[in-house]
Design brief:
Chain lengths: ~325, ~325, ~325, ~325
């Protein structure tokens, strides 16, 4: 079977695991007070050219919720986003369970439409309604699209104008960067808080939360512990992310996945449904084809239509070119 | 420096890391639906001789809170425990943040006094007060003590009589088992839910939650995701715990730490303050000695007294005997 | 000024206040354990012909949230409703603050479209999404519409099929009953929990929550206290609701408001925008007219359009016919 | 039967109810935007000689929790108080349900011992523990004691030194004022937020929350609505409190209850157990006496001892002197 089901189907890349082996006899201070965590912070500060604070958390959902919990201090404060957002659809109500409402704003595909935000914001006029306080977006989006830097700048401008904190879910930020022309430094200049996903790119676990806005740095470790995200062996994540970010290794990993996805997009042009540029490829096949290829390829069914289905093919840092070529052939010929 | 500061100061044991390397090219289904997770469940079922459900979480606090969240359905339901409990002192109010009150009951050292529970329970007589619904204990306790099996049986009997669910925090359960005469199977027969700590015994991260009571199995994965504990690469934890539990490897690791602690207890008898049997050793030294040894040994100051202090020495799965002997010498002679 | 702004603009009806005076020298047990509360329960049981439990709360929002808190035990459980619902728009995020997500389903006007519910429900397929557990509707709706009894029966049938509890927000239930052909008894047979609003119909405060489903009766007073709704002088609300429900007094009050609204609807036919039958009348006037009448009539602007606006006129139990006639004249002639 | 069970056993005083009758034909704006609410604010500002904000809530528990919710913004922030506090014992875990931990500090009777606060505060040293942020006390206390003004000044000084907000639960503040030599103005100068209880002194419902500290005024109406405390007919409470506070009427009511309690204390000196000065009298009687008097007097059993019991006698604004004299006779002679 060729596995194109998702990008979190292997333990992690050899370089990352080797790094763990390398430090396996060393002793470290617990709870993120260690030297490796400090080293990671320095590295991220040099990459972003900002005095950011950094924390490694165990996964995307916990990073979204704890990040937003730091932003939304009062229970009447809400987060604006699009309806397809991960926090809305695929986190089992975690944001509401933490006490906050999601407000929907207009989308273009999986992206926030900048032109709709202010109208959305203005609907909340008095104390019988929630108060919008955060703007949440994913880059890449749930549909694999990437915001241009100009789009991000515009969103940030609007957010600041409306006194909203801008949070970027970066579960696939490396893939977004690898398929665009901007950098971590750019990202850090267009938001208040973001994270760099590792779990979907060769780490056994780990998302790197980066706090840019000074106001959001205050007492973050309290909320991190209170909301269940503080890892006692913080140094493990730090060691992994040091390697991940060093020498653009994360971009190397991401670029490979993009390259493999591009190959799919090119060769399966006729089936493509969403125009995106990262490591998720959405194609529409008739039901017969879907059935046939499922004997050889593992993938996810995204949406069932009448006689056809949209399926999602995901490439990873370690997807083999021969597998991609085989998959293309199977899809075309079955 | 000799590091006796805690038992979570290294990435993990070689055998565990090797296991990760071994499977690093394999592909797995995400979110704990994989074969390794099933294998782990079978292993734990055979060890406990019960049809338990099993989940790997990232750390102790999150396991305590999510476990108790599954037990305490209503916001007026409360958990009974002793004042020194981890959930009361060292979790930054996570249990209250999840909406529940802690009720204190009488302690003997760090243990729950079984004779006090019913009186505690009976104080809650009407709907102006919370309703006790869970009994929480740590084994080993915060002070390194181990409950006897008879004590646990008695606590379970009382819990059932009072309609309380018994939850055992097992952050150091392997160490408790290694220093006592009972097993995982025994533990599974005296409680409704417990966990086996890996983080403090050679895993990069990971606590294995075991749900014994059928009522508590229902929809557990919903609460696991909602309360931020579901790991996308569930197979990583499963692979580690399969190795950890196989061939009593976890007991081997724990036994070594106990042996090293016993050496400390024996040789430092005159300074001992708490009579315990696991891998934490509490000694009282005059301030002068504390100052002197701190140049050579890393440890934690537990309590400052007037002219002296209680310090905590913790041994680990990989503590070297020569380091222990050196530490003993330094303490005695400084 | 003629006040048609809302139906909660006076302290309360003379009969209700007289009832308070009448009992002002009597002594009662606190916290709803008194004879008047028992008497009220008997009265509601006879009116509904069911062994319901009854509680008086202070207002609509607190009744919605506490009622739903009793239904939604787990933080991953969600409530299905339409987007215009009071709990979604006008409760400052109280439902999310209590930990639960709102799911939107298709609406027809302000009503739930029964044909959309199952499709909505079926979107929630696994533990990465919330679990629908309640269906919430208002009768009369936010737009003043009234469900037919057949519609309610159908909704209840669907709810039971899908294992959802049906909750009816009855802030204006008396007005719905007064403008339809069914009764409290009918309502009690088509839902699991509902309430009868008093605040919007001549009570200084008070909503009567009626629990029909036995499962939802368990420990209700604990959640009532925990969620801040237990009133120490429960007998005050009970005395008021005994009078309110006795001899169909509440229907008399409601009927008058409907009659006045019908007069408005009839005479202002040409301006009407929503076809409803209760005590809220929505009319569209050009901006000039809106400005002119605002010197003589107090009303609420519902929606600003370009050259016109939709305004809401609300009649109450004590709205005077002469005021209504004057208002009609003013609107027509200005 | 002579009712000395509590001070919330009647609907309310004639003057208060008459005030409601008086305004029963007037129309008001909803949700506390009315003229009577503004009038009340002016009155309280003149009584306190401070630019306070004021809100009427429905009862003590909801006022405690919403007040503290405004103070405790982060889930890791905690409130320091004594173990006998109402928020700890008699609110069904509402404070924890709202997400916050209670920290106990040393008590003298039902009062906070000022000498213990700093030591309590200093135990919370890092982000593994909660962060104390509020100090909560009741005046009068649960045991009917009254803080001296000097005691309050000292507590406020300590609170400010430790960066804690001081909240005064004033469910029986009028009774405290009536039995001491200080005023509302004094109270407003020694805390950040307090309330004046009406429910226990002749109002059908109502506590008047007074926000002194500017920081705590921000967006209060949002939290009031979100946490279920906003009453649509805010003018009802305002009308009642205007009368309550006008011409020291509340002190007149309170003074009568104190006078009646003093009579009990004087005549039952030999049985007194707690030395207090307000309208609660605690006496110890042998079981035989308790049984005998229970045929003639309604009271609450406070604590069961072996052969005796502590019972509580409570006087109210409308307790009759002849009833008190009869009760004394019955207690002495039975």
């Amino acid at each position: 079977m060729i596995n194109l089901k998702n990008d979190y189907n292997t333990i992690g890349s050899k370089e990352i695991l080797d790094e763990l082996i390398k430090y396996s006899n060393d002793k470290f201070v617990g709870y993120g007070e260690d030297t490796k965590t400090k080293e990671l912070n320095s590295l991220v500060r040099s990459l972003t050219e900002k005095e950011v604070d950094t924390y490694v958390l165990s996964g995307g959902t916990i990073t979204n919720i704890i990040g937003l919990s730091q932003i939304l201090k009062n229970p009447y404060e809400a987060v604006i986003t699009v309806e397809t957002s991960h926090i809305n659809v695929h986190e089992t109500g975690a944001i509401e369970s933490s006490g906050h409402k999601i407000i929907f704003t207009k989308a273009i595909g999986g992206k926030i439409d900048p032109n709709g935000i202010e109208a959305t914001y203005n609907k909340f006029t008095d104390n019988h309604m929630v108060m919008p306080k955060a703007l949440y977006l994913s880059n890449a989006t749930e549909l694999g699209e990437v915001y241009t830097l100009d789009e991000l700048k515009e969103l940030y401008r609007i957010a600041k104008k409306l006194n909203l904190y801008l949070f970027i879910d970066g579960a696939r930020l490396p893939q977004a960067l690898a398929s665009s022309k901007y950098t971590l430094k750019d990202i850090a200049s267009v938001c208040d808080m973001f994270y760099v996903g590792g779990t979907k790119l060769g780490l056994p676990y780990g998302e790197l939360l980066v706090i840019v806005n000074d106001e959001l740095k205050v007492n973050f470790k309290y909320i991190l512990k209170n909301k269940l995200g503080l890892l006692s062996k913080g140094f493990v994540g730090a060691i992994m992310f040091n390697r991940f970010l060093r020498d653009d290794y994360y971009l190397t990993l991401a670029s490979h996945s993009i390259e493999m996805a591009n190959l799919l997009r090119e060769e399966l042009k006729e089936y493509l449904v969403y125009p995106n540029t990262t490591n998720q490829v959405f194609i529409k096949l008739d039901n017969n084809k879907v059935n046939n290829i499922s004997k050889y390829i593992e993938f996810e069914v995204w949406e069932l239509l009448n006689d056809s289905a949209i399926i999602r093919l995901v490439t990873a840092y370690n997807t083999k070119k021969e597998d991609v070529l085989d998959a293309i052939k199977i899809i075309k010929e079955s």
